[in-house]
Amino acid sequence: MPYPETWLKAAVETATGWQAHPLVAPEQAPVPYAVYGRQATAPEHALDPALQASINPSGTFALELYAPSYSAAKEAAAAVRAALRNFIGTASGVTIRHCLLTDERDGDVIFFDGQDRQTYVVEMTLDIRWQE
After folding, report:
1. Which domain holds residue 8?
2. Which of 28, 37, 80, 127 is the most exposed place for a label (fewest CB within 10 A)?
3. Which residues have C-beta within 8 Å of that of residue 88, sequence separation ≥ 6?
4. Residue 12 is assigned to a structural domain of this protein
5. The model's pTM
């Protein structure tokens, strides 16, 4: 069964040109990169077996963009917004009913071990509804 995470990963990588990792980036992953994960799922229920084919759950997804500069983080966020916001269609084997950007903010600056320069973060929250 295709999952919205498959579409999200591909869409973010296409929009930014960066690697996108589920839940956590591998240790020593080179910046820039993105991290995504599902925070919650609101299942849709159908008591009628004939309606089971059109179940459309909704999920809340977190997306974090890690970049070597503030401007690079903001440019990546703009590219992701343009690619994901209000998307409807079928891609990566999953039918997306809608993708809404519900929150975007600057994250805390991070100093990774062994680095003397900061990494900038933009945090996004997405509401994605898909067809199972």
Report:
1. 1-44+54-66+76-101
2. 28
3. 96, 97, 98, 99
4. yes
5. 0.90
